[in-house]
Amino acid sequence: MAFQKPSHTFTKIHLKALQTKSLYILFTLSFTVFINTFSFAQELPIKEGTIPAKQQKDSTSVSLDSIASLPVKTIEVDSTKKDSTKQKGLLEGTVKYTAKDYVSLNQKKTQIYLYNEAEVLYQDMNIKAGVIVIDYSKNLVYAGRIKDSTGYSQRPVFTQGENVIEPDSIVFNTESKKALVFNSRTEQQGFKVYSPITKKENDSVYFMKKGRFTTAEDEEDPEYQFVTTKMKMVPNKKVIVGPTYMEIYGVPTPIALPFAFFPMTQTQTSGLIIPSFGEDSNRGYNLQNGGYYFSISDYLDLAILGDYYTNGSYGIRVENNYALRYKYRGNLSLRYENLLNEERGFPDFSQSTIYNIRWSHSQDTKANPNSRFSASVNLGSSSYFQESINQLNQSSFLNNTLASSVSYSKTFSGEPQVNLSLTATHSQNTNTGDVNLTLPTLQASMGRVYPFEPKNGTKKGVIQNINFQVSTRGEYSIQTNDSIFGKSEMFDDAEIGMTHSIPVTTNFKVFDYFSVSANASLEENWTLKTISRYYDQDLEETVTINQNGFDRFLTYSAGASIGTTIYGMYDFENENKDSKIKAIRHVMRPSISYSVSPAFDQYYETYEVVDADGTTSDEVYSRFENSLSGAPGNTFSSSVGLSLSNNIEAKIRAKDSTQTEAEKVTLLNSLNFSTAYNIAADSLKWSPLRMTGGTQILNNKMSINFGMTLNPYALDSNNAVVNSFNINNGGSLFRLTSANVSMSYTLSNDSFSGKDSEEKDASAQESARSGGRTDDLFGRTEDYANKRLSDSDKEDDEKEENNEFYNYKLPWSLRLAYAANYSNTQRENEISSHSLMFSGDIDISPKWTVGGSSGYDFANQGFSYTQLRFERDLLSWRMNFTWIPFSDRSSWNFFIGIKSNLLKDLKYDKRKQADQSVGN
Q: How does DSSP assign 184-248, residue by residue?
């Protein structure tokens, strides 16, 4: 490629108000065209014997270093091999160049000179600079700065494709695409590089000499940088450096590397994961969370991580993420640990193995609207979260339940619609080790059918609203312990059952204000396991025999309810006073229900029991007692239920005087009362009165829930409930047997400004996957191997509010949770639990953040799990210190590292782990 020589000379003629000389103008134009047609833009031959004039140097021209001179080609080409008809054009594209001051064409030097805000555009190359010189005879472009009394300005900006370089000067060969760049500055994905001399080999390779690189925001005065002797950079692919050492504010440090490799690809790339190191009082020194990351494809990845302790303990973790757009996404985590406490041969030596499996899968609703598959699995050893050496379990060890669910559902369209689902569930108590499994649960249901609905119009009346549906539920249930989980013994006590039900309902209105609903239900239960029971006189004990085989029982029941809604309004506003409270509205929803269920005595049998005195008595049992659905009731029930729900709202004067409408606030979200009266019972006919309620105050930031149970019957001297009202026994109308209250409060510095500051960070998501809390009241999950500040920067308005003298806005957040339970069932009159939990963070300065999570148990008079957090923003670096000051999990962790993901492996991590053997 070469720059074409200009074939015409254009002269700008200014128009003046003079007398027109047509003949002279015609002669001048003819002469100009004649000269431009037959003249050539070349130098005249130098005459022999003449003395050349002294060459004057243009002060505005750019002087070039000798290093910029290109070697002259000396290889001669046979002219007979040249075919003028096959020569390639001198230009492959259009060259565009502009300048603010002037553009000068020097045909003698074969150069084009651009000055002040110059710009050259050719194909994918763009150069902007103060001065640009185009030498089209050598196919070179020179670009540099402008020097004036204040210094240099208009540094060149060289852009080719997505690559941008900002040097002091540049020499570019348009034919070979090579270039020499002086004092260049470039940035690749936050990786900022400075080099005194850079050689651009081609479109994708740069060689740099004595370069420096950093991720600091301030390129002119970075707080840290790495200095290297040589560097090779392939934009958007990789950076390779030679011997490198680190400088902090220009001071060399002993931190050095013989070489380094930095991947710069914008896609996922496989690579090593650098572990963090620490020390444990039981297991010695350790390396944690180190391994290898496999970038399998754009839809699938895999990370294999491991921990190792010098006493022989180790852990292996496998993390997998997969996703397919508009189809599904999920992740899988497997963890296995072999833990050794103390040294072999010592009396307190112990060994244990624990594991944990977590799987999460969700399907996109666009994938298939008629079928759906989802999974949320969290199972493993009951002591996993308590014993694990993985630091990601920081806030999960307080969990006492592991739960899993894997489900598939399918909908068959039609009239009626049929729904089918298969669900496998898992529930595990980590304190007792008990495990409940359903493998699986089959549910099938048919859509509601209205056999008497009209062909046109809405359904009215009792008959037209009659509807029924058919549903089936089959379950394979296993109750076992984690000690035999996964072994054949766990299936010995498995139970199989199926329930078929047909509910029939209808609803209608009476007197226009009362809603009436009636229902009847028919239910049949199938089982493959029943029992037979008798009394063995020789052994003097009752013997139960399990019987395998199909059996069934049928039950039915009926009921009805009537309810209405009552509205009450009290208006506070009058003509003489503009009250703050405009009105209060009270909504009541009373309801009366009746249900009846017969006694199914046909499913019960008796056997004789002879006691030590020889007295014979009959014992009643049902062969379905140990079935999955349980035994049917053998007592006739006829019960009336009473309930009342309340909602109270108010209208108040708006705080904004420009608003004409009053604001609506909620005083009580709910206040519910419920009880029942069993007509068929021979005693204790009234059920305890249950009251529940809830509301939200302080701009909906504090939620309050409360409840209590009131028993109308009295207690005897043995604290047993007797069939006598408490008021007739010298007491009050009701006897308070239990009460509970819970409150939660979340607020921050933005709570009163209308902003929402709640965020779900990665640590909260990790805690949720483990079944823990996401509000960090139990402490915050800390990923020490990859700890970084969030990517969100402070908002611009916060920066404007802070000046150099003071900061009158301190970002903060606070979360509170209060719970109390009172028990008085048998005159114990005690508060069974009473605790306050709190967690908060505050930015005491723009760079310092402190926080903590703790709580106090008022019943047991002690602090709960406590965690203190300290963070320091060091511009490009970040420092973090986390401390658990007391309890058997007392530990601390110190971390300092670079924020940038590109250099995140450059870190220092020191920790002291908890001595978990103390709690064991």
A: EEEEETTEEEEEEEEEE-SSS-EEEES-EEE--S-SSS-SEEEEESEEEEETTTEEEE-SEEEEE
